[in-house]
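Design job #97: recover the sequence.
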């Protein structure tokens, strides 16, 4: 199983970024895909999930600003982030659980300047 995040970068407050997580090595369309984020010295926190059908779920602080989606043909999950705030600055990771094993990507850095 491999998860590769991309799309991070430096953006000003109020800006937008779209993160991608390209997956391989498992049946993508059968799995819930999660996005997490982490800042130095803090625990990794859950951000959003996509079940493959229906709306995504989001942590309260990103609701209305972030949108999770997927393309099953490309085995890729996306995180569209709008109205970014400095507190959104973090390393963003995608995660999947396949059978009983949890897999993480290496992350992509998002930095929001004030």
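Job complete. Output follows.
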């Amino acid at each position: 199983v491999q998860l590769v995040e991309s799309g991070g970068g430096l953006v000003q407050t109020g800006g937008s970024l779209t993160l991608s997580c390209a997956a391989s090595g498992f049946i993508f369309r059968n799995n819930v895909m999660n996005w997490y984020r982490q800042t130095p010295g803090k625990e990794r926190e859950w951000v959003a999930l996509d079940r493959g059908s229906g709306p995504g779920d989001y942590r309260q602080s990103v609701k209305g600003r972030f949108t999770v989606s997927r393309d099953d043909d490309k085995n890729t999950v996306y995180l569209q982030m709008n109205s970014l705030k400095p507190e959104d600055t973090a390393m963003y990771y995608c995660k999947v659980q396949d059978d009983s094993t949890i897999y993480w990507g290496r992350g992509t850095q998002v930095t929001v300047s004030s």
